[in-house]
């Protein structure tokens, strides 16, 4: 699945994180899930789902799992289900259209089903999002980035107080793709029963980055340099923290950020999946791989929600918070696995998996839950 009639580099140069854009008929096939299947998924334990209703000028939010929908009627409600790409392969295929953007930034695909009048109210997101129109039609108004004041009409629903001037005011039809940068107010109202696919891009703030990297450093036992005092004066009252002491702490942290260890920690954090990845019942060992590569009834597929990233100038690959060093002989295999989007016959990997490192790489990725081995 690919974006059609879109100059991707021009979009990145002129629009990405700058202004909203609408791509009419940007995708050809968006018949990815039936409303009944989505509704059934929202009945399952472990699935993050909400129903937002707007009736008699009042908003309400109900969290799943749900038992029935008949009592909701045919107007003014929306079902939203997070991370549907991790449950439904057809929905996961939608991400192929956005692989011109950094893989680690992709969060998940939220799918919403709305009846006539359904919506979540005017709001802003703290992340970039592409909204793909599936079945049905929805009227969208999107404004330029502006300062807004949050308001909470009910628990678990954040909207904005201010009205906004729309720079996009359009009815989306199947295949239309709407890009909304972080901080741009928007509001969408279903004109009829419809499906929307929202591809969100995570953007951790400074505190979130520091928390993730600190946890990662503790797990990997890195960044262990300790604080030492600057020159002290016996005349300084003990309760006063001096400028020199503050500077010493900042320098300690600055030296951590500038170290090569910190680069590794960032990549480890970037490679972490949003949710735990499935583990094989029995760990795979590299010695099993040569026999698997000859099996005509075996395929490999990237696990939805997994990430496989490479350092820009080192042979270091990262997945699920772990690092694997790839030899020159295994680089072609690693690249092929990193670019894997569809289910692939494992025999296709054989020409680039003839050495021990490549075989160990496949076993490592299976054990990490990043790729799955399927045998008919």
TrEMBL record:
Its cofactor is Fe(2+). It comes from the Bacteria. SUPFAM superfamilies: Clavaminate synthase-like (SSF51197). PROSITE patterns: JMJC (PS51184). Residues 90-218 form the JmjC domain. This is Cupin superfamily protein. InterPro entries: JmjC_dom (IPR003347), NO66-like (IPR039994), ROXA-like_wH (IPR046799). It holds the Pfam family JmjC_2. Keywords: Dioxygenase, Iron, Metal-binding, Oxidoreductase.
């Amino acid at each position: 699945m690919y974006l059609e009639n879109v100059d991707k580099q021009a979009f990145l140069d002129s629009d990405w994180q700058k202004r909203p854009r609408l791509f009419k008929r940007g995708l050809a096939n968006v018949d990815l899930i039936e409303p009944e299947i989505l509704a059934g998924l929202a009945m399952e334990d472990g699935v993050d789902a909400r129903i937002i209703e707007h009736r008699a000028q009042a908003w309400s939010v109900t969290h799943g799992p749900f038992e029935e929908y008949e009592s909701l009627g045919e107007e003014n409600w929306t079902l939203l289900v997070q991370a549907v790409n991790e449950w439904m392969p057809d929905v996961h295929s939608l991400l192929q259209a956005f692989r011109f953007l950094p893989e680690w930034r992709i969060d998940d695909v939220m799918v919403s089903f709305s009846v006539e009048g359904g919506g979540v109210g005017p709001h802003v997101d703290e992340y970039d999002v592409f909204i793909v129109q599936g079945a049905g039609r929805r009227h969208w108004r999107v404004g330029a980035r502006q300062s807004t004041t949050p308001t909470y009409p009910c628990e678990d629903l954040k909207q904005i107080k201010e009205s906004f001037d729309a720079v996009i005011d359009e009815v989306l039809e199947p295949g239309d793709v709407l890009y909304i940068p972080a901080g741009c107010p928007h509001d969408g109202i279903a004109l009829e029963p419809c499906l929307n696919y929202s591809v969100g891009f995570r953007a951790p703030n400074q505190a979130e980055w520091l928390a993730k990297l600190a946890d990662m450093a503790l797990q990997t036992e890195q960044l262990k340099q300790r604080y030492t005092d600057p020159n002290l004066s016996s005349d300084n009252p003990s309760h006063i923290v001096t400028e020199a002491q503050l500077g010493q702490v900042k320098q300690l942290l600055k030296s951590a950020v500038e170290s090569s260890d910190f680069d590794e920690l960032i990549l480890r954090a970037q490679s972490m999946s949003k949710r735990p990845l499935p583990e094989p019942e029995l760990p795979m060992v590299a010695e099993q791989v040569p026999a698997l590569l000859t099996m005509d009834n075996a395929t490999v597929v990237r696990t939805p929600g997994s990430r496989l990233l490479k350092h820009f100038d080192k042979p270091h690959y990262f997945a699920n918070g772990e690092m694997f060093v790839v030899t020159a002989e295994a680089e072609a295999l690693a690249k092929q696995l990193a670019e894997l989007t569809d289910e692939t016959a494992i025999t296709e990997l054989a020409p680039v998996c003839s050495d021990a490192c490549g075989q160990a790489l496949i076993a490592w990725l299976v054990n990490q839950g990043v790729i799955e081995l399927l045998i008919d």
